[in-house]
Automatic annotation (TrEMBL):
Keywords: Hydrolase. This is NUDIX hydrolase. One of its GO terms (molecular function) is hydrolase activity. Residues 40-171 form the Nudix hydrolase domain. PROSITE patterns: NUDIX (PS51462). It comes from the Bacteria. It comes from Corynebacterium lujinxingii.
Length: 215
């Protein structure tokens, strides 16, 4: 039988605006407990927005953790307790790309860093696009670039190491495979079972809303 990794105790080490760090004492095979530090996260959504010519909307955003600007998909935190993933994706597409879409589907779900973080991301594909006014941006987003890139070229940028954001890599390669007839999208009504709950539940119960966005 597989071992059941039960938690003997937990403590919050860091409680920051958009993440928390929790230490769990986990029972290992043989009965010995071991500490595991976990980054709690709200989860996020991202959007592969494709126009009629199969160009993908990409943004370029400064990421302080690596000290560089990265090509990425429009994306955002699920930082509203209980908010629907699709509604969040629609809002982020407007805020970061100035776009709305009439056709939506689930492209891929991913757990970005399961070795130490709860973060999970649902990536949507959006089509039948139209331009709308983009609201005023703040912080890193005030310096955000925007471009249309052919999907095939974006996939090549992934393979050349020019696109390294893991969410963008997954979304672009998945969209490229679907476009080539090698896969299918999923209905937006399919539950996002990987969505993290611990941080959102604790913040929601305390009525705390993050004051900064980094996704």
């Amino acid at each position: 039988m597989s071992h059941e990794f039960t938690v003997e105790s937990s403590e919050i080490l860091i409680d920051a605006p958009i993440i928390a760090v929790r230490r769990d004492s986990v029972v290992m095979p043989g009965g010995t407990p071991a500490d595991r530090e976990i980054v709690e996260h709200f989860g996020a959504v991202a959007v592969v927005a494709l126009d009629d010519d199969n160009n993908v909307a990409l943004v370029e955003q400064y990421r302080h953790s690596v000290g560089r600007r990265l090509l990425e998909l429009p994306a955002g935190l699920l930082d509203v307790y209980g908010e629907d993933e699709l509604e969040c994706a629609k809002r982020e597409l407007v805020e970061e790309a100035g776009l709305e879409a009439d056709e939506w589907a689930v492209l891929v779900d991913l757990v970005t860093s399961p070795g130490f973080a709860e973060e999970a991301v649902r990536v949507f594909v959006a089509k039948q696009l139209r331009e709308v006014e983009r609201p005023d941006a703040e912080n890193e987003e005030a310096d955000m670039g925007f471009s249309w890139v052919p999907l095939d070229e974006a996939a090549e940028k992934v393979l050349r190491g020019e696109i390294v954001n893991s969410i963008a890599v997954s979304g672009i390669l998945a969209a490229s495979r679907v476009a080539a007839g090698g896969g299918h999208t999923r209905d937006v009504a399919e539950p996002f079972e990987w969505r993290p709950q611990s941080l959102a539940r604790r913040r929601g119960e305390r009525g705390i809303v993050p004051d900064m966005k980094q996704v």
